[in-house]
Design a protein that fits this description.
It contains twelve helices and eight strands. It is α/β, with parallel strands linked by helices. The chain folds into two domains: about 230 residues, TIM Barrel, CATH 3.20.20; about 40 residues, no CATH class. An eight-stranded parallel β-barrel has the order 1-2-3-4-5-6-7-8, surrounded by seven helices. Bound molecules: 3-methyl-2-oxobutanoic acid.
Length: about 280
């Protein structure tokens, strides 16, 4: 069955009609196909790929070349979901022309539908320029992992009245700059709920409670495949780490003990050809 691809208008309509938006990360072709088949609205090629796919300590080292490589793979596996690619650290913070060019690359070469970037009011000029160039931008405020070192680590943001007000001002500024949606990460539930009510565009929460217009989780976290970081907001829907480990150990044991491959995993040969083969090689 061919399904109509999700658009920005569909996402806005979901918010307007009080229906929740679903978003998941994916980083490769097979993963994207599975997320897409589950009819998740948005696939995010997050720079979290630096940690879960590439083994970096955090998202800071991720490059444009790495993002493009993974975006292209995800695009090949996606038919239904709206796709968003993360602009990696230092690809948009230093220069607006550079920000527009890199956003363009994620759409043109990475075949994404939109880009996401982290930061509040300080990012308005870059967002306006990218939107003016015809590209949709998703904002990301609260805990912004690219600046976790400046924030003092992976910490909840907006816990005081003043910082909550700051977050609201950031969200309103991002909306006015043209963002079509904003991710709220690690923000107290009541603060995220107020921001979601005050904005016309949809908010997508991660560790921000049920008052957001949608939710996002990291692919490996949802599947229980990555336990180096275990934030409180993750809900594991499977324990694939154990399932995968069990399968690998069973395979190793089967090979070592001669149980794999069995007859059904091998290709037969006509008897007479085998006899002729043996005759030729004088076996
Ligand atoms: O990189 C990422 O996966 C993200 C999500 C956590 C929102 O930005």
């Amino acid at each position: 069955m061919s399904r109509k691809k999700v658009s920005i208008l569909d996402l806005q309509r979901k918010k307007d009609n009080g229906r929740s938006i679903t978003m998941l990360t994916a980083y490769d072709y097979t993963g994207a196909m599975l997320v897409d088949q589950a009819e998740i609205d948005i696939i995010l090629v997050g720079d979290s790929l630096g940690m879960v796919m590439l083994g970096y300590e955090n998202t800071v080292p991720v490059t444009m070349a790495e993002m493009l490589h993974h975006c292209r793979a995800v695009a090949r596996g996606t038919q239904f979901a709206f796709t968003v690619g993360d602009l990696p650290f230092l690809s948009y913070q230093t220069d607006i022309t550079e920000a527009v060019r890199n956003a363009g690359l994620l759409l043109k070469e990475g075949r994404m539908d939109a880009v996401k970037l982290e930061g509040g009011r300080e990012m308005v000029p870059a967002i306006e320029a990218i939107v003016r160039a015809g590209m949709p931008v998703m904002g990301h405020i609260g805990l912004t992992p690219q600046s976790q070192s400046k924030l003092g680590g992976y910490r909840v943001q907006g816990k005081t009245a003043v910082s909550a007000q700051n977050l609201l001002q950031d969200a309103l500024a991002l909306e006015a700059a043209g963002c079509f949606s904003i991710v709220l990460e690690a923000v107290p539930e009541p603060v995220a709920a107020v921001i979601s009510q005050k904005l016309a565009i949809p908010t997508i929460g991660i560790g921000a409670g049920a008052g957001c217009d949608g939710q996002v989780l990291v692919f490996h976290d949802l599947l229980g495949m990555f336990d180096r970081l275990q934030p409180r907001f993750v809900k594991e829907y499977a324990n694939l780490k154990q399932t995968i480990l069990d399968a690998f150990v069973a395979y190793r044991d089967d090979v070592v003990n001669g149980r794999f491959p069995a007859a059904e995993h091998t290709y037969p040969m006509p008897e007479e050809e085998l006899a002729e083969f043996r005759r030729i090689i004088k076996d």
